[in-house]
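As a representative case, the lines below give one protein's residues and fold tokens.
***
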Amino acid sequence: MSSITKLMLLTVFLSMILSGFVPSAVYACSCARPQEVNEQFSRSQQVFSGRVLDVKEQRHMNGSLTKAALFEVSRVWKGSEESQIIIHTGSGGGDCGFHFEKNKSYLVYARPSTMYGDNELLITIICDRTSGLEQAQADLAVLGEGKAPTKQVQLEGRFNGLYSNLWVAMIGMAAGAAVILWYVWRRARKVR
């Protein structure tokens, strides 16, 4: 095989690998109308109040940027009664992402969705009634007292490991490309 043919094959191979890193289409966020508390409650799988322990940005294989927030749950109205939960959202700027701040408390309405990735995750968006706990008094009056979480869990390890597989895949692809380049370079040197 000539070195030009090898170079063309290498270019095609690398193009196929790197095409997975092309950013996906961008969509604007538009909320039709605010939902009533009972309507939002019935649409949600998880309704809770809690304090944000940490927020992480995550870059996905398709190039999109999202955020995950780890909560210490204080009250539960619907869904899992675990003491911690991870909620996903967009990064903001038109992707419907909700802005969570570390150490601030929120009333969160969440539901499973693939909106922010290939896997179904618990998400909340700016169109939901999720808000800071101080601004949620009207919702709390309708929801009632709620109950304390009954199952103690520690999700920090899982939260810190989110998307670590992405880095492993990227490093593996880079190593594979380096091996191929080395092989082509070595073969080209022998031909001369």
About this structure: The radius of gyration is 23 Å. The longest strand covers residues 46-59.
